[in-house]
Design brief:
Structural class: alpha+beta
Number of helices: 2
Distance between the termini: 14 Å
Shape: globular
Oligomer: single chain
Order of helices and strands: EHEEHE
CATH superfamily: Ribosomal protein S6/Translation elongation factor EF1B
CATH topology: Alpha-Beta Plaits
CATH architecture: 2-Layer Sandwich
CATH class: Alpha Beta
Strand order of the largest sheet: 2-3-1-4
Strand content: over 45%
Largest sheet: 4 strands, antiparallel
Low-confidence stretches: none
Length: 93
Amino acid sequence: MRNYEFTVIFNANEENTQAGLEFVTSLFAAAEVEITKQEDMGVKYLAYDIKKQEKGHYFYFELKADPSKILGFEREFLLHANILKYLFVNTEK
């Protein structure tokens, strides 16, 4: 298991944000990913429009996950309509 930082930007609409957050946390739970920290960073203006959206709702997570699971998440996140952008960062050197 490795430590990761994960940042995700959801559609700023409250219903879409909640649906996206539930999707992400259920996906992590099914893959036995341990969420050590979760922080709601709020709604912010984006530097440029993403999927025709000017604002996004940011969430930050600290995770412990198996590296092979990360690639599977990326495919799921690309296909989900409420997720505008995401980033996984390996915090181990």
